[in-house]
Amino acid sequence: MNLKVPDYILSIQPYSPGKPLEELEREYGISDSIKLASNENPLGPSPRAVEAIKGAIENLNRYPDAGGHDLTKKISESLGIGQENIVLGNGSDEIIGMLTRALIQAGDEVIMPWPSFLIYDIMVRSVGAIPVYVPLNSLSIDLNSMQSRITPKTRMIFLCNPNNPTGTVFSKTDLETFLESIPEVVVVVDEAYIEFVRDKECARSIDYINADVAIVTLRTFSKAYGLAGLRIGYGIMPQEIADLINRIRLPFNANSLAQVAAIAAIEDKKFLQKTVDLVQEGLDFLYDSLERLGIKYFPSQANFFLINVKKNADEIFEKMLRQGVIVRSMTSYGYPNYIRINVGLYNENVRFINALEKVLCNLSLSQ
Q1: Residue 65 · residue 260 · CB < 8 Å
Q2: Distance (Å, rounded) from C-alpha 295 to C-alpha 327?
Q3: pLDDT tens track for 105-125
Q4: What domains are there in the chain, each with its CATH number?
Q5: I need a surface site. Which of 162, 181, 225, 361 has the fewest CB within 10 A?
């Protein structure tokens, strides 16, 4: 076909989420594998969310509430923010896409840390805008360097707190200093993993919704709340921006099962705490185990962390897969000797440690 495709679309590298667990098992002839590659909740969804879904199934012939009134009301009450400041999305990814379409034009510049969540790059390029990458400093977002890259063409800045894939955070003081130093641009702060943070000095961007600089906070139900399969997230933003986003938001973008499940998940505070406790205990166990083996890791404020395997990460991924353990190679993020794993159940964490020790030992013996 003779398709006339814009160069900025051709410049996009497709996002690679990895193969489904079942397909990998068939391909490699393995079974009973564990997946520690996608930062998912190992406990699954809240039982109350599951019951809410069951109760809503009989109404699937009806369209969902287009405005998500009940869910936005629940979020509003939970966070103490105005309902008019909340926009629902088919995952927070969709909010990113709507922000770029509504607020950015071809040729505009958008500053983002590198490495970070790959969807920022994809959505910015999809509207013909120019991503401006600012390298991390010791795996952390360098707000000073980001400020120095602002030009008259800058329209938006993406921040990720905790950052994916490094799990590092910036503090309230650092964010406040940054906001005071920048001109009138839109700052988007992705807080997909904020529920897992232990650092009490970590910034939470919803505290600055009334700041002079326009701040948009992204949140999701995919991680701590265990609803990744339903694709439900939201943005918190000044009403002026919310009104613009709602002009282009597709009708019924948040499905009915996702909405009722998210409401129930917010209400199930015990399950959320159980998840957070499991993750933090799992991190401590994994850190201790890696220290015992003399393997370099990088502490994280999220439910995942990086490990320096000092080998080809793609090769480690393959060999771990043959042990029935799925991890994430960081080669596409610019770290060819790092893997990323998320915390699993206790027995999954033990299995990961045993598999990694075996794989690294076999590689050392073969060299």
Answers
A1: no
A2: 16
A3: 999 999 999 999 999 999 999
A4: 18-44+270-366 (3.90.1150.10), 47-267 (3.40.640.10)
A5: 361
